[in-house]
Amino acid sequence: MRLLAGQNAWILAAVLGLQGLCNGNPVAPKPNSLDALARRVEVPGLNTPSDEFPASRRKARARRGEDIPQLGLGGGFGTAQPIGTYEQKGDQRLAAYDEARKKKTPDTTIFDNADESGKSGDEHKSFFNIYKNEDYFEFDTETIPTTNYPELQGFKSADTGVDLGDIKELEETTIRDATGDMFKEVINLGAYDKKGKIIVAVSAFKENNHTPRGRQYVPINEVGWQVYAHTAEGNVENLKVIFLMNIQNKGFWSITAKNYEEFGKKTDEMVVWEAGHGDALKRFKRFLGSDNINGKLLALTNHHNAIKDKDIAKVITIPKDVPGSQGKFTAALVLE
Question: Residue span of the signal peptide, if any (predicted)?
Fold first, then answer.
């Protein structure tokens, strides 16, 4: 019966083939090898790992940072750059800050009228007051207990210069995109104490700022500063620490992993990175060149007189495996 069925199948195929020829339709050639068939159809066992992921692609995946240790919550975001890139950026940013202090460069001016901002030609000389940008920014502020951020308890006052036990409350401000309809996306979220000692930088999404480019537009680093200055009022000279919450940036993870390796530390330890000299300064600058800190240091440069020209003194890192971290990566930029 099987033989008969097979013969019938071949007869049917021949008939269909003749019909196709009579109708002018080409008949697909029979694959002459299993390899040819495998190129048309996925056949288990025929496609080896090297065929699916050639060496060039495997190297590219490694360059994209897929081998970076998971030092924070989740799988991480962004693409890590070469370590030397961060060191160079940090060196440039720190040099710009020191130059502003040395030359006593005037601070950035904030105008209530957008037409007055940016007239100097240098975009960092003046900015529009974000609290006047009502068409694009929606503000929501509430008073919260500092204990709402339990990760902060992992930092020691001897390292930060701030006793968090003395700061009972924070003003938490969320800025949302006012142009949104059903869902208003977050542009900036942070918490600040009214005495001006700390900034708790939670999240910032510059892509959600739909303010048209021009004199009315304010970059995300300046947005964070203006909220802090508005909350602290006349106390900005007291600024001591900027806390970076729930760090998921792969670049920051890669910097941390490299620095810990060089320093002979395990990532389940808190480490204080001081400016120092030689290798210590090199590692310090890497952090300053990261996406998480670079923009904040730019804001401090623009307002260096307001903070009394403090030194950029330390970076403190608490990866997720450190006891008390709440499973998140938290860091601090310390001023002295």
Answer: 1-24
Q: How far is CA 283 from the centre of its chain?
A: 19
CA–CA separation, 130 and 114 (whole Å) = 10
95-147 confidence digits (pLDDT tens): 999 999 999 999 999 999 877 766 655 656 899 999 999 999 999 999 999 99
Written as six digits, the tokens of 253 are: 């993870």
Cα separation, 129 vs 279, whole angstroms: 41
Sequential DSSP letters for 153-210: GGS-HHHHS--GGG--EEEEEEEEETT-SS---EEEEEEE-TTS-EEEEEEE-GGG--
Q: State pTM to two decimals.
A: 0.80
Which two tokens mark 105? 């460069």
Question: CA-based angle 237:298:313, to the nearest 5?
Answer: 60
Calculate the average pLDDT of the chain. 84
Instruction: Report d(CA 218, CA 137) in Å as an integer.
Output: 11
**CA 15 – CA 20 distance, rounded (Å):** 9
Strand partners, 178: none
- Burial (0-12, 13-18, 19+ Cβ within 10 Å), 231: buried
Characterize the bridge pairing of strands 169-177 and 137-145.
antiparallel
β-pairing, 241-244 with 198-204?
A: parallel
List, in sequence order, every residue forming a beta bridge with 139; answer none if it has no partner: 175
Contact 171/191 with Cβ under 8 angstroms?
yes
Within 8 A by CB and 6+ apart from 134, the residues are 178
The answer to whether the Cα torsion of 283, 285, 286, 291 is positive or negative is: positive
State both tokens at 176.
């949302």
Predicted pLDDT at 38: 35
Helices (H), 233-302: 250-263, 278-288, 291-302
CA distance 226 to 161: 23
CA distance to 113, 125, 168, 207, per residue, from 119 (Å) = 12, 9, 42, 25
pLDDT at position 113, please?
A: 84
Which one, of 320, 141, 324, lies nearest residue 228 by Cα? 141
